[in-house]
Design a protein that fits this description.
The chain has 312 residues and is an alpha+beta fold. 36% of the residues lie in helices and 20% in strands. It is built from six helices and twelve strands. The chain has helices at residues 17-48, 65-93, 199-215, 218-228, 267-275, 298-310; strands at 101-108, 111-115, 121-122, 125-128, 132-139, 144-148, 153-157, 163-168, 173-179, 192-197, 254-256, 262-264. The protein has a five-stranded mixed sheet with strand order 3-2-1-5-8, with no helix packed on it. The chain has a five-stranded mixed sheet with strand order 4-10-9-6-7. β6 and β7 form a beta hairpin. α1 runs antiparallel to α2 and α4 crosses α6. It starts with 16 loop residues before the first helix and ends with a helix. The structure holds dinuclear copper ion. Dinuclear copper ion is lined by residues 110, 144, 179, 181-183, 187, 190.
Protein backbone atom coordinates (compact mmCIF):
# COMPACT_ATOMS: atom_id res chain seq x y z
CA UNK A 1 0.00 0.00 0.00
CA UNK A 2 2.35 2.70 -1.15
CA UNK A 3 -0.02 4.91 -3.06
CA UNK A 4 -3.29 6.62 -2.20
CA UNK A 5 -5.06 4.94 -5.12
CA UNK A 6 -4.22 1.43 -3.86
CA UNK A 7 -7.21 1.79 -1.54
CA UNK A 8 -9.66 1.72 -4.41
CA UNK A 9 -7.84 0.78 -7.60
CA UNK A 10 -6.53 -2.56 -8.86
CA UNK A 11 -2.74 -2.98 -9.20
CA UNK A 12 -1.20 -0.62 -11.77
CA UNK A 13 0.58 -2.87 -14.26
CA UNK A 14 0.92 -0.94 -17.50
CA UNK A 15 2.75 2.18 -18.60
CA UNK A 16 -0.61 3.94 -19.02
CA UNK A 17 -1.71 3.32 -15.45
CA UNK A 18 0.30 6.04 -13.68
CA UNK A 19 -1.25 8.91 -15.61
CA UNK A 20 -4.79 7.54 -15.33
CA UNK A 21 -4.40 7.05 -11.58
CA UNK A 22 -2.83 10.47 -11.06
CA UNK A 23 -5.81 12.15 -12.74
CA UNK A 24 -8.25 9.98 -10.80
CA UNK A 25 -6.54 10.95 -7.55
CA UNK A 26 -6.47 14.61 -8.51
CA UNK A 27 -10.24 14.62 -9.10
CA UNK A 28 -10.81 12.82 -5.79
CA UNK A 29 -8.59 15.15 -3.78
CA UNK A 30 -10.10 18.30 -5.34
CA UNK A 31 -13.62 16.95 -4.67
CA UNK A 32 -12.69 16.17 -1.08
CA UNK A 33 -11.31 19.68 -0.51
CA UNK A 34 -14.51 21.23 -1.89
CA UNK A 35 -16.73 18.85 0.09
CA UNK A 36 -14.97 19.76 3.35
CA UNK A 37 -14.80 23.49 2.55
CA UNK A 38 -18.48 23.77 1.62
CA UNK A 39 -19.65 21.65 4.56
CA UNK A 40 -17.61 23.68 7.05
CA UNK A 41 -18.87 26.96 5.53
CA UNK A 42 -22.51 25.81 5.75
CA UNK A 43 -22.16 24.86 9.40
CA UNK A 44 -20.24 28.07 10.25
CA UNK A 45 -22.76 30.38 8.53
CA UNK A 46 -25.75 28.50 9.97
CA UNK A 47 -24.45 29.18 13.45
CA UNK A 48 -23.13 32.70 12.86
CA UNK A 49 -26.21 34.04 11.06
CA UNK A 50 -28.93 32.09 12.87
CA UNK A 51 -32.04 34.12 13.83
CA UNK A 52 -31.40 35.40 17.31
CA UNK A 53 -34.54 37.49 17.89
CA UNK A 54 -37.94 38.00 16.18
CA UNK A 55 -36.79 41.34 14.68
CA UNK A 56 -33.81 39.76 12.92
CA UNK A 57 -34.38 40.48 9.21
CA UNK A 58 -32.09 39.40 6.38
CA UNK A 59 -30.74 42.51 4.61
CA UNK A 60 -31.37 42.77 0.85
CA UNK A 61 -28.20 41.77 -0.99
CA UNK A 62 -28.46 41.77 -4.81
CA UNK A 63 -25.05 40.47 -5.83
CA UNK A 64 -21.32 40.50 -5.20
CA UNK A 65 -19.13 40.71 -8.30
CA UNK A 66 -15.88 39.62 -6.67
CA UNK A 67 -17.47 36.56 -5.09
CA UNK A 68 -19.36 35.54 -8.22
CA UNK A 69 -16.34 35.86 -10.51
CA UNK A 70 -14.20 33.89 -8.03
CA UNK A 71 -16.65 31.00 -7.76
CA UNK A 72 -16.94 30.86 -11.56
CA UNK A 73 -13.30 31.18 -12.54
CA UNK A 74 -11.77 28.76 -10.01
CA UNK A 75 -14.04 25.81 -11.01
CA UNK A 76 -13.49 26.72 -14.68
CA UNK A 77 -9.73 26.45 -14.23
CA UNK A 78 -10.13 23.15 -12.37
CA UNK A 79 -12.36 21.54 -15.01
CA UNK A 80 -10.07 22.76 -17.80
CA UNK A 81 -7.14 21.08 -16.01
CA UNK A 82 -9.17 17.86 -15.81
CA UNK A 83 -10.16 18.19 -19.47
CA UNK A 84 -6.60 18.82 -20.73
CA UNK A 85 -5.15 16.05 -18.58
CA UNK A 86 -7.90 13.60 -19.56
CA UNK A 87 -7.66 14.45 -23.25
CA UNK A 88 -3.91 13.89 -23.18
CA UNK A 89 -4.45 10.49 -21.55
CA UNK A 90 -7.16 9.65 -24.11
CA UNK A 91 -4.77 10.42 -26.98
CA UNK A 92 -2.03 8.27 -25.41
CA UNK A 93 -4.47 5.41 -24.90
CA UNK A 94 -5.64 5.40 -28.51
CA UNK A 95 -2.32 6.11 -30.27
CA UNK A 96 -0.26 2.92 -30.29
CA UNK A 97 3.50 3.27 -30.88
CA UNK A 98 4.63 2.28 -34.39
CA UNK A 99 6.61 -0.72 -33.20
CA UNK A 100 3.73 -2.27 -31.23
CA UNK A 101 3.32 -6.04 -31.43
CA UNK A 102 -0.05 -6.73 -33.04
CA UNK A 103 -2.57 -9.33 -31.91
CA UNK A 104 -6.07 -9.84 -33.38
CA UNK A 105 -8.93 -10.07 -30.90
CA UNK A 106 -12.27 -11.56 -31.89
CA UNK A 107 -15.21 -11.32 -29.53
CA UNK A 108 -18.15 -13.68 -29.87
CA UNK A 109 -20.96 -14.38 -27.38
CA UNK A 110 -19.47 -15.25 -24.86
CA UNK A 111 -15.82 -15.84 -25.59
CA UNK A 112 -12.63 -14.02 -26.51
CA UNK A 113 -10.34 -15.39 -29.22
CA UNK A 114 -6.81 -14.15 -29.75
CA UNK A 115 -5.18 -14.68 -33.15
CA UNK A 116 -1.38 -14.47 -33.16
CA UNK A 117 0.90 -13.55 -36.04
CA UNK A 118 2.04 -17.16 -36.55
CA UNK A 119 -1.55 -18.35 -37.09
CA UNK A 120 -2.12 -19.73 -33.60
CA UNK A 121 -5.51 -19.01 -32.03
CA UNK A 122 -6.23 -19.27 -28.33
CA UNK A 123 -8.57 -17.94 -25.65
CA UNK A 124 -5.80 -16.52 -23.45
CA UNK A 125 -3.95 -13.34 -24.28
CA UNK A 126 -0.20 -13.99 -24.09
CA UNK A 127 2.03 -10.92 -24.35
CA UNK A 128 5.66 -9.96 -23.78
CA UNK A 129 6.56 -7.65 -20.88
CA UNK A 130 7.99 -4.13 -21.52
CA UNK A 131 6.84 -4.10 -25.13
CA UNK A 132 3.89 -2.17 -26.56
CA UNK A 133 1.11 -4.50 -27.70
CA UNK A 134 -1.63 -3.33 -30.05
CA UNK A 135 -4.93 -5.19 -30.13
CA UNK A 136 -6.97 -5.02 -33.32
CA UNK A 137 -10.46 -6.03 -32.31
CA UNK A 138 -13.77 -6.97 -33.90
CA UNK A 139 -16.92 -8.83 -32.92
CA UNK A 140 -18.70 -11.69 -34.68
CA UNK A 141 -22.08 -10.69 -33.31
CA UNK A 142 -23.11 -7.98 -30.82
CA UNK A 143 -21.19 -5.16 -29.14
CA UNK A 144 -18.74 -6.32 -26.48
CA UNK A 145 -16.17 -4.28 -24.58
CA UNK A 146 -12.60 -5.27 -23.83
CA UNK A 147 -11.51 -4.28 -20.35
CA UNK A 148 -8.33 -4.97 -18.35
CA UNK A 149 -8.53 -3.05 -15.05
CA UNK A 150 -4.86 -3.72 -14.16
CA UNK A 151 -3.76 -2.08 -17.42
CA UNK A 152 -6.36 0.74 -17.23
CA UNK A 153 -7.58 0.02 -20.76
CA UNK A 154 -11.12 -0.37 -22.05
CA UNK A 155 -12.50 -0.26 -25.57
CA UNK A 156 -15.72 -1.33 -27.25
CA UNK A 157 -15.52 -4.25 -29.67
CA UNK A 158 -17.96 -3.86 -32.55
CA UNK A 159 -19.36 -6.00 -35.34
CA UNK A 160 -18.46 -4.84 -38.88
CA UNK A 161 -15.76 -2.48 -37.69
CA UNK A 162 -12.24 -2.75 -36.25
CA UNK A 163 -11.34 -0.93 -33.07
CA UNK A 164 -7.94 -0.99 -31.41
CA UNK A 165 -6.34 -0.38 -28.08
CA UNK A 166 -2.77 -0.78 -26.85
CA UNK A 167 -0.83 -1.26 -23.64
CA UNK A 168 2.66 -2.02 -22.40
CA UNK A 169 2.76 -4.37 -19.43
CA UNK A 170 5.34 -3.44 -16.81
CA UNK A 171 5.55 -6.74 -14.94
CA UNK A 172 5.09 -10.45 -15.66
CA UNK A 173 2.15 -12.43 -14.33
CA UNK A 174 -1.59 -12.79 -14.96
CA UNK A 175 -4.27 -10.14 -15.28
CA UNK A 176 -8.03 -10.44 -15.71
CA UNK A 177 -9.93 -9.49 -18.87
CA UNK A 178 -13.61 -8.62 -18.54
CA UNK A 179 -16.36 -7.95 -21.05
CA UNK A 180 -17.89 -4.71 -19.86
CA UNK A 181 -20.75 -4.21 -22.30
CA UNK A 182 -23.89 -6.21 -21.51
CA UNK A 183 -24.06 -8.81 -24.30
CA UNK A 184 -26.60 -11.35 -23.15
CA UNK A 185 -27.14 -14.15 -20.64
CA UNK A 186 -23.52 -15.19 -20.05
CA UNK A 187 -22.05 -11.67 -20.28
CA UNK A 188 -20.59 -11.95 -16.79
CA UNK A 189 -18.86 -15.24 -17.74
CA UNK A 190 -17.16 -13.62 -20.71
CA UNK A 191 -13.76 -13.62 -19.07
CA UNK A 192 -10.20 -14.33 -20.17
CA UNK A 193 -6.69 -13.99 -18.82
CA UNK A 194 -3.73 -11.93 -19.96
CA UNK A 195 -0.47 -13.76 -19.35
CA UNK A 196 2.55 -11.48 -19.41
CA UNK A 197 5.81 -13.32 -20.23
CA UNK A 198 9.44 -12.30 -20.22
CA UNK A 199 10.32 -11.36 -23.81
CA UNK A 200 12.31 -14.54 -24.68
CA UNK A 201 9.80 -16.70 -22.84
CA UNK A 202 7.03 -15.18 -24.98
CA UNK A 203 8.86 -16.11 -28.19
CA UNK A 204 9.29 -19.66 -26.93
CA UNK A 205 5.66 -19.88 -25.93
CA UNK A 206 4.52 -18.58 -29.32
CA UNK A 207 6.74 -21.03 -31.22
CA UNK A 208 5.51 -24.05 -29.27
CA UNK A 209 1.86 -22.94 -29.04
CA UNK A 210 1.56 -23.07 -32.81
CA UNK A 211 3.21 -26.44 -33.30
CA UNK A 212 2.02 -28.26 -30.18
CA UNK A 213 -1.32 -29.02 -31.87
CA UNK A 214 0.36 -31.24 -34.46
CA UNK A 215 1.75 -33.53 -31.78
CA UNK A 216 -1.53 -34.06 -29.94
CA UNK A 217 -3.85 -37.04 -30.16
CA UNK A 218 -7.15 -36.01 -31.81
CA UNK A 219 -9.24 -36.33 -28.61
CA UNK A 220 -6.63 -34.43 -26.64
CA UNK A 221 -6.55 -31.70 -29.29
CA UNK A 222 -10.36 -31.61 -29.26
CA UNK A 223 -10.37 -31.01 -25.52
CA UNK A 224 -7.82 -28.22 -25.89
CA UNK A 225 -9.87 -26.62 -28.68
CA UNK A 226 -13.06 -26.71 -26.59
CA UNK A 227 -11.25 -24.77 -23.87
CA UNK A 228 -9.39 -22.48 -26.23
CA UNK A 229 -12.46 -21.44 -28.20
CA UNK A 230 -14.44 -20.77 -25.06
CA UNK A 231 -17.08 -23.45 -25.78
CA UNK A 232 -17.09 -24.36 -22.09
CA UNK A 233 -18.49 -20.94 -21.18
CA UNK A 234 -21.87 -22.30 -22.32
CA UNK A 235 -21.44 -26.10 -22.56
CA UNK A 236 -20.36 -28.14 -19.55
CA UNK A 237 -18.49 -31.42 -19.85
CA UNK A 238 -19.78 -32.85 -16.58
CA UNK A 239 -23.54 -32.90 -17.22
CA UNK A 240 -24.34 -29.62 -15.46
CA UNK A 241 -26.76 -27.24 -17.16
CA UNK A 242 -25.43 -23.98 -18.62
CA UNK A 243 -26.71 -21.84 -21.53
CA UNK A 244 -26.19 -24.73 -23.94
CA UNK A 245 -26.58 -28.52 -23.76
CA UNK A 246 -23.83 -30.37 -21.88
CA UNK A 247 -21.20 -32.20 -23.89
CA UNK A 248 -21.26 -35.12 -21.49
CA UNK A 249 -22.50 -38.23 -23.29
CA UNK A 250 -23.40 -36.10 -26.29
CA UNK A 251 -22.13 -38.39 -29.01
CA UNK A 252 -24.77 -40.84 -30.19
CA UNK A 253 -27.46 -39.25 -28.01
CA UNK A 254 -31.04 -38.91 -29.29
CA UNK A 255 -31.99 -35.28 -28.97
CA UNK A 256 -35.35 -33.54 -29.33
CA UNK A 257 -35.30 -30.33 -31.34
CA UNK A 258 -37.41 -27.21 -30.97
CA UNK A 259 -39.85 -28.33 -33.68
CA UNK A 260 -40.46 -31.62 -31.84
CA UNK A 261 -38.47 -33.79 -34.23
CA UNK A 262 -35.60 -35.90 -32.98
CA UNK A 263 -32.08 -36.21 -34.24
CA UNK A 264 -29.15 -38.44 -33.39
CA UNK A 265 -26.02 -36.51 -32.45
CA UNK A 266 -23.52 -37.89 -34.95
CA UNK A 267 -20.54 -36.46 -36.82
CA UNK A 268 -22.76 -34.52 -39.25
CA UNK A 269 -24.96 -33.04 -36.55
CA UNK A 270 -21.94 -31.85 -34.53
CA UNK A 271 -20.27 -30.39 -37.61
CA UNK A 272 -23.47 -28.59 -38.62
CA UNK A 273 -24.00 -27.26 -35.08
CA UNK A 274 -20.49 -25.79 -35.00
CA UNK A 275 -20.68 -24.18 -38.44
CA UNK A 276 -24.41 -23.40 -38.56
CA UNK A 277 -25.63 -23.35 -34.95
CA UNK A 278 -29.11 -22.05 -35.80
CA UNK A 279 -29.95 -24.95 -38.12
CA UNK A 280 -31.16 -27.41 -35.46
CA UNK A 281 -31.80 -25.96 -32.01
CA UNK A 282 -32.17 -28.40 -29.11
CA UNK A 283 -35.50 -28.11 -27.30
CA UNK A 284 -35.38 -25.94 -24.19
CA UNK A 285 -32.30 -23.94 -25.18
CA UNK A 286 -32.18 -20.40 -26.58
CA UNK A 287 -30.89 -19.99 -30.16
CA UNK A 288 -27.95 -17.82 -29.13
CA UNK A 289 -24.84 -19.58 -30.43
CA UNK A 290 -22.95 -17.96 -33.28
CA UNK A 291 -21.06 -19.78 -36.03
CA UNK A 292 -17.48 -20.95 -35.62
CA UNK A 293 -17.00 -21.16 -39.39
CA UNK A 294 -13.56 -19.73 -40.11
CA UNK A 295 -12.47 -20.18 -36.50
CA UNK A 296 -12.26 -23.98 -36.72
CA UNK A 297 -11.03 -25.95 -39.72
CA UNK A 298 -12.03 -29.50 -40.69
CA UNK A 299 -9.15 -31.13 -38.84
CA UNK A 300 -10.08 -29.26 -35.67
CA UNK A 301 -13.76 -30.19 -35.98
CA UNK A 302 -12.71 -33.85 -36.39
CA UNK A 303 -10.65 -33.53 -33.21
CA UNK A 304 -13.62 -32.09 -31.29
CA UNK A 305 -15.83 -34.97 -32.49
CA UNK A 306 -13.19 -37.44 -31.29
CA UNK A 307 -13.14 -35.70 -27.92
CA UNK A 308 -16.95 -35.86 -27.62
CA UNK A 309 -16.76 -39.63 -28.15
CA UNK A 310 -14.64 -39.88 -25.00
CA UNK A 311 -17.14 -37.94 -22.84
CA UNK A 312 -19.26 -40.87 -21.62
CU1 LIG B 1 -19.46 -9.72 -24.21
CU2 LIG B 1 -20.56 -8.68 -22.37
Amino acid sequence: MNRLSDFMLPPARSTLAAETDALFNFINVVSLIFLLGITIAIIYFAIKYRRKSPDDVTPLITHNNTLEITWSVIPLILVMIVFGWGYNGFLNLYTPPDDAYEIRVVAQTWTWQFHYQNGYTGNELHVPVDRPVKLVMSSNDVIHSFYVPDFRIKKDVLPNRYTSVWFEATETGDAQIFCTEYCGTAHSNMLASVIVHEQEEFQTWLATAGSADDDMEPAELGQALIQRNGCTACHSTDGSQLQGPTFQGIFGRETTLQDGSTVTVDENYIRESILEPQAKIVEGFPPVMTSFAGALDDRQIDAIIEYFKTLE
